[in-house]
UniProtKB/TrEMBL annotation:
EC number(s) on file: 4.2.1.136
Subunit structure: Homotetramer.
A GO molecular-function descriptor: metal ion binding
InterPro entries according to UniProt: Carbohydrate_kinase_pred_CS, CARKD, Nnr, Ribokinase-like, YjeF_N_dom, YjeF_N_dom_sf
Stated role: Catalyzes the dehydration of the S-form of NAD(P)HX at the expense of ADP, which is converted to AMP. Together with NAD(P)HX epimerase, which catalyzes the epimerization of the S- and R-forms, the enzyme allows the repair of both epimers of NAD(P)HX, a damaged form of NAD(P)H that is a result of enzymatic or heat-dependent hydration. Bifunctional enzyme that catalyzes the epimerization of the S- and R-forms of NAD(P)HX and the dehydration of the S-form of NAD(P)HX at the expense of ADP, which is converted to AMP. This allows the repair of both epimers of NAD(P)HX, a damaged form of NAD(P)H that is a result of enzymatic or heat-dependent hydration.
Pfam families, sorted: Carb_kinase, YjeF_N
Alphabetically ordered keywords of this record: ATP-binding, Isomerase, Lyase, Metal-binding, Multifunctional enzyme, NAD, NADP, Nucleotide-binding, Potassium
Protein name: ADP-dependent (S)-NAD(P)H-hydrate dehydratase
Organism, scientific name: Formicincola oecophyllae
């Protein structure tokens, strides 16, 4: 329940939301192809989203715009009732409003039907009403989109513009919701930090904290969303006292058959700034690694030099296990690394090895599945359902089942920690959808762990660095980089991250 102090803030927040949304429409209207004379129809629902709509209508009328309010249900909350009262214009019931074809083509409908409180199925009459217009703007969320996951109910009307109130919501950044929000523009709102928790409790969909926003002690262990950016984590800076060991040692288990993946992981680790990268590989497959990376150390595994022997070196604390590995190679290495209490990034082959058995991953520091790998490991109906409809909760549940930080990769990667922190990454590029790009990422996670970052922060930093490198490589390669091109940009990405994190 929301406390009294936070409750008292709500009318002011609704006023700011509605006024800000009106300002946004006035500013962005021309870009949407709307003239000054364009009619605005606000479709107001029964909750506070509808309340925002009434406030917006009042501000548009004050700005002398032609605005009509259509009601899809009497206001049910005190706030919405007050907003309705303060609107002095007519309110036309949905059933009796007859828009003409000119309005459909030239006017804009403001979708204030449902926002964060939507659940279940979208009622067909208001959904069809919204669909009828050429131009649409949403308040908070297009109606029918889940604010937490971005899941869309059938019949959602895509908008060109969405007003985000104070903070972004996960559903505005995650597919498929992201695709129907159009351009998401933040309406600034004065929201005291201590009330954020109460707002989250009061409204059914989460908001995204900015990197520097404090999480109160009572929120520890609860689901909390963050937008991934420098400042949420801090990469160590270079100092004159550094040596290669202080910058971190990353060891990669090299595959004998598919050596390319291990080599790309090695490249990711080295390019993102680890001091020393090594590969442990069966002697008969070592040459490709030796020839491929002059600055890396290749440890040839023989009957007399085993993985156990290598683990006697305590500086080799961080391992990447999975890229390019067969199940038998994973079986011979992953349990050994865990038994030696090493920090392990479990990717690719290790995830395949744990198909249907997530408990096999317990002990890993970070797991990095893409959707296919996720579905193989976590193959219960509940987890498959979450994967389809709620990626943040899917990643969180995976983190809790394995005890590891879970990076659920995709165009909107999600990084979840067992303690409830979930970061959503939007800093990436479509150019990353190329074979080997995930292998590069596993090495970057290794570097961030090896330098002493905690697993969630390390994973978030790695995903951001990888995304930044992907953007830069895409720009350099006309949109079509190779995984190697992405790796080549990681040093500059780290330089940029350390500059930005100072500002954050
Ligand atoms: N966060 C903030 O700080 C601020 C948030 N603000 C605003 O508050 C909004 C959230 O308001 P909200 O909680 O009242 O929910 P809202 O989206 O209006 O819907 C609830 C109503 O819809 C109904 N309903 C739901 N689904 C339905 C369905 N399928 N079919 C039919 N009916 C359905 C539901 O019915 P019930 O479940 O109660 O039967 C209830 O009546 C948020 O999006 C933002 O715009 C701002 O004012 C300022 C600050
Ligand atoms: N459209 C996209 N936009 C942003 N990032 C993407 C996109 N497609 C893939 N990625 C990223 O690229 C990487 C691909 O990893 P993965 O599928 O494991 O590739 P591979 O196994 O070939 O190395 C992941 O980090 C993922 O988040």
């Amino acid at each position: 329940m929301m406390d009294k102090a936070a409750g008292a803030l709500l009318p002011a927040l609704m006023e700011q939301a509605g006024a800000g949304a009106a300002r946004l429409l006035l500013e962005r209207g021309p870009e949407l192809g709307l003239g000054e004379q364009a009619r605005v129809v606000v479709l107001a629902g029964p909750g506070n989203n509808g309340g925002d709509g009434y406030v917006m209508a009042r501000h548009l009328a004050t700005a002398r715009r032609d605005v009509t309010v259509v009601s899809a249900g009497e206001p049910r909350t005190e706030l919405a009732k007050a907003a309705r009262q303060a609107w002095s214009g007519a309110v036309i019931p949905l059933a009796s409003f007859q828009p003409d074809s000119l309005l459909h083509a030239e006017g804009i409908v403001v979708d204030a039907l449902f926002g964060a409180g939507f659940k279940g199925d979208l009622p067909s009459a208001p959904a069809a009403f919204l669909q009828g217009f050429k131009h649409r703007m949403a308040l908070d969320m297009p109606s029918g989109v889940d604010g937490l996951s971005g899941d869309c109910a059938p019949g959602v009307a895509p908008c060109q513009l969405t007003a985000a109130f104070g903070r972004l919501r996960p559903g505005q950044l995650l597919l498929p919701g992201k695709a129907v929000c159009g351009v998401v523009k933040a309406v600034p709102m004065t929201m005291p930090p201590e009330s954020i928790q109460a707002m989250e409790d009061a409204f059914p969909a989460a908001i995204l904290r900015t990197p520097t926003e404090p999480v109160p002690a009572e929120a520890e262990g609860l689901l909390r969303f963050f937008h991934n950016a420098p400042g949420l984590w801090r990469l160590p800076l270079q100092t004159p006292l550094d040596n290669k060991y202080t910058r971190g040692v990353v060891s990669v288990i090299g595959g004998g058959v598919m050596s390319g993946a291990g080599r790309l992981s090695l490249m990711g680790a080295r390019r993102s700034g680890c001091g020393l990268a090594r590969v442990a590989v069966q002697a008969q497959s070592a040459m490709i690694y030796i020839l491929g990376a002059a600055g890396a150390i290749i440890d040839e595994l023989t009957p007399s030099v085993t993985l156990q022997t290598l683990l006697e070196d305590k500086r080799r604390h961080t391992w990447v296990c999975g890229p390019g590995l067969t199940s038998s190679e994973v079986m011979a290495s992953f349990p050994v690394l865990l038994a030696a209490k090493r920090q392990v990034v479990a990717d690719a082959g290790t995830l395949d090895w744990a198909a249907g058995a997530p408990e096999k991953l317990r002990g890993a520091a970070v797991i990095t599945p893409h959707a296919g790998e996720f579905a193989r490991v976590f193959n219960t109906p509940r987890m498959l359902g979450l994967l389809k409809r709620n990626r943040p909760l899917a990643a969180l549940e995976a983190a809790r089942l394995t005890g590891a930080v879970c990076v659920l990769k995709g165009s909107d990667s999600v990084v979840a920690a067992p303690d409830g922190r979930v970061a959503i990454n939007t800093h990436a590029s479509d150019g990353l959808a190329t074979a080997g790009s995930g292998d590069v990422l596993s090495g970057v996670v290794g570097t961030c762990l090896a330098v002493g970052m905690a697993p969630w922060e390390a994973a978030c930093a790695a995903v951001w660095l990888h995304g930044q490198a992907g953007q830069a490589a895409s720009a350099r390669e006309g949109g079509w980089p190779l995984a190697e091109d992405v790796a080549a940009e990681l040093g500059r990405a780290r330089g940029l991250a350390t500059t930005l994190q100072q500002a954050g």
